[in-house]
Automatic annotation (TrEMBL):
Motif extent (DGA/G): 183-185
Keyword Hydrolase recorded: yes
GO molecular function: hydrolase activity
Native organism taxonomy: Bacteria, Pseudomonadati, Pseudomonadota, Gammaproteobacteria, Oceanospirillales
The protein's name in its UniProt record: Patatin-like phospholipase family protein
Residues the record marks as active site: 42, 183
Domain of life per record: Bacteria
Keyword Hydrolase annotated: yes
Any single GO BP term: lipid catabolic process
InterPro entries xref list: Acyl_Trfase/lysoPLipase, NTE, PNPLA_dom
Record keywords: Hydrolase, Lipid degradation, Lipid metabolism
Ranges for domain PNPLA: 8-196
PROSITE patterns for this protein: PNPLA
Residues spanned by motif GXSXG: 40-44
């Protein structure tokens, strides 16, 4: 196969990010695919940084090993809860309900975050800043303004990575240079535009953990609440892709309407890998399930989904898009 340079946009989704681990693990098997830029939000940011840190140390195989090391460490971490299935489900439902009324400033006074120690052991941020193999775009949301903030590889550190995955009902806001940040999913999940405007490669693969369309109407209170949450975390991505579609439709066929920005949007070759049935049938509670069996199962599902995607679309990489942007987002 002819070598292709690919940019990646990785959506967040808590423990569901193990699905993306599997997708990346499969992509890394293909030596003809190289990577230029990776945009990640929340769990997607974790995958992006682990892939870059592993590649920095040991190339493709190092990236695969680092991703595995991270997710297995998550499975073995202190925030793993080992309860009987029936009890665990009831406790998790109660916890999620209680989080609507309790603030981390009330119940997590010491601001304990097991992910902080885990990441500190997994990543040498100083060396990654100096020698990142990819351009990194790590999304966080500024609390005061609601604006998307992208942290690049040259400034990345532990607080900035934690900010991308800071859920405000669990952890206190992350302070960086006098500003406070929450999870990047509120403002860009994932952010695609830096891959268009700040990278040379035209192929962009967007890996989603939420399907673009739900087949059934949510009617129970729990199903409605879950769908509302999904829409909240996906709306910014949908608007961004709608803007891409609008720019293309407005500027197509008229060279005088196309400046540098329009040419970059029109030149992008968009590819989309959506979650499969293994994720679509899961409840919101499963995003907090970091049991090893669950994470490995999602990883295997991600590898299989990527394998099928490559079988269908790999011949299009470097040549043409494999998804209908206008049909999906306009």
């Amino acid at each position: 196969m002819k070598s292709v340079s690919l940019n990646l946009a990785l959506q967040g989704g808590g423990a569901h990010g193990a699905f993306t681990w599997g997708v990346l693990d499969r992509l890394l098997d293909e030596t003809w695919i190289n990577f230029e830029g990776v945009s990640g939000t929340s769990a997607g940011a974790m995958n992006a940084v682990m892939m870059a840190e592993g590649w920095r140390q040991g190339g493709r195989e190092g990236a695969k090993q680092q991703l595995a090391s991270f997710w297995l460490a998550v499975a073995a971490s202190d925030f793993s809860v080992r309860l009987p299935e029936q009890v665990e489900g009831a406790v998790t439902r109660f916890w999620l309900h209680a989080m609507r009324y309790l603030s981390p400033y009330d119940v997590n006074l010491l601001d304990i975050n097991p992910l902080e120690d885990l990441l500190a052991k997994q990543v040498c941020f100083e060396k990654l800043r100096q020698n990142s193999p990819f351009k990194l775009f790590i999304a966080a949301t500024e609390v005061a303004t609601g604006k998307l903030k992208l942290f690049h590889e040259r400034e990345l550190d532990l607080p900035r990575l934690l900010a991308s995955a800071c859920l405000p009902n669990i952890h206190k806001a992350i302070e960086i240079d006098g500003a406070y940040y929450w999870d990047g999913g509120f403002s860009g999940n994932p952010a695609v535009f830096p891959l268009i405007y700040e990278c040379v490669a035209d192929d962009v693969l967007i890996i989603l953990l939420q399907s673009l369309q739900r087949e059934s109407l949510p009617v129970s209170a729990e199903a409605i609440a879950e769908r509302v949450t999904e829409l909240g975390f996906q709306s910014t991505f949908m608007r961004e892709m709608r803007a891409v579609s609008n720019i293309r439709q407005y500027s197509s066929g008229s060279r005088w309407r196309q400046g540098w920005a329009e040419r970059k949007v029109n030149g992008m070759r968009c590819h989309l890998l959506e979650s499969d049935d293994s994720l679509d049938g899961l409840s919101r509670m499963s995003m907090y399930d970091n049991s090893k069996q669950f994470l490995i199962g999602l990883k295997d599902a991600g590898r299989e989904a990527c394998d099928q995607w490559l079988h269908t679309h790999q011949a299009k990489l470097g040549k043409r898009e494999s998804c209908d942007v206008n049909g999906l987002f306009s």
